Amino acid sequence: MAPSAIRTSKSTKRRPKKAEHGTSVGVAFQRIRDLIVNARLAPGTSIVEGDLCEHLNMSRTPVRGALFLLQREGYVIESRNGSKSRMIVAPMTKEDANELYPIIGRLEGLAGRRAAALPKHERQVLAAKLKLVNDKLAQIARAGDYHGPDIFDLDHEFHHLLLASASGPRLTTLHRAIEPQTERYWRLYASSIIGELLVSVAEHEKIIAALLAGDPDRLERALCTNWENGYKRLARVIEMFGERGSW
C-alpha cells in the first residue's frame, strides 16, 4: 500500500486506532467469502495471498487467518502438485452439494418444528408472508420472465422468514455458516435450474400448509424434502454442464 502523500505531526493529528487482530480476521473472512460466493473468485481459482491483501487493503496476517477459517469451512482447499502446494477456491461438485443441501434441510427442519409450535395467530401471520413471497415466485415462473438474482432473493426471503420466526441463536449460527456455500451453487447454476421453478413453488405450498396445520413432523419433512429435491434438480444440471473448478 502506498504511503500517505500528506504527513501530519503527532501534535496536530493522532493516528487512527488500529483494528484488533480478531476483528480484522473477521472482516477479511467475510469479504473473501463474499468474493467466493458471488463467483468473483471462481471455483478452482488459485488464491494469491498478495493479490488478496492488495484488493482488501489489509496486511497478510488477517488474510492468512481468514484463509485458515475459510479452509476449515470448505470454501478453500489445499491443492498439492508433487512437493508444491497452493490454496484454491473449492470446486463446486455433486459430492459437495450432496453433503450441503441435506444439512441445510435438516437445520431448517428443526426451525420448522419450532415454528409449528407458535401460537395460531403468529403462524397465520407468518404463513401470509410466506404465501406473498411464493406467489411472486409463481408469477415469475408462469410468465417465463426469469431473472436469476430476483428468484434467488425471493427464495432466500421465503426460507429466512420461516427461519427467523423460530430459530434460536445456535441454530441461526449453524445455518449462517453453511448457507453461503449452498448460495454458491444457486448463483452459478440458477439460470439452468429455474425451468423447474413451479415444482419448487409447489413444495413451498406444502410448507405453508404444514405451518398452518401446526404439524411439526409434516413441516420438518416438507422443508427437508424441498432441499433434498433442490439437490436432485441441481445434480441433473451439474451432470449436464459439468462441475465447476474440478479437473
The assigned structural class equals mainly alpha
Low-confidence regions: 1-21
> What order do the SSEs take from the amino end to the carboxyl end, as H and E?
HHHEEHHHHHH
User: Radius of gyration from the CA trace?
Assistant: 22 Å
End-to-end Cα distance: 35 Å
* Count of distinct strands: 2
Shape type: globular
Spatial order of the strands forming the largest sheet: 1-2
Word description of this protein:
The chain has 247 residues and is mainly alpha-helical. α4 packs antiparallel against α9. The chain has helices at residues 21-37, 49-56, 60-73, 94-116, 120-143, 148-166, 169-193, 197-213, 216-241, and strands spanning 76-81, 84-89. Helix content is 70%, strand content 5%. β1 and β2 form a beta hairpin. It has a two-stranded antiparallel ribbon. The longest helix has 26 residues, at 216-241.
What are the key terms here?
247 residues, mainly alpha, two-stranded antiparallel sheet, 9 helices, 2 strands, 5% strand, globular, disordered N terminus
Helices and strands in order, then pairings?
Blueprint: H1 21-37, H2 49-56, H3 60-73, E1 76-81, E2 84-89, H4 94-116, H5 120-143, H6 148-166, H7 169-193, H8 197-213, H9 216-241
Antiparallel strand pairs: 1-2
Helix pairs in contact: 1-3, 1-7, 4-6, 4-7, 4-9, 5-6, 5-8, 6-7, 7-9, 8-9
Task: Tell me briefly what this model is.
The chain contains 9 helices and 2 strands; from the N terminus they run αααββαααααα.
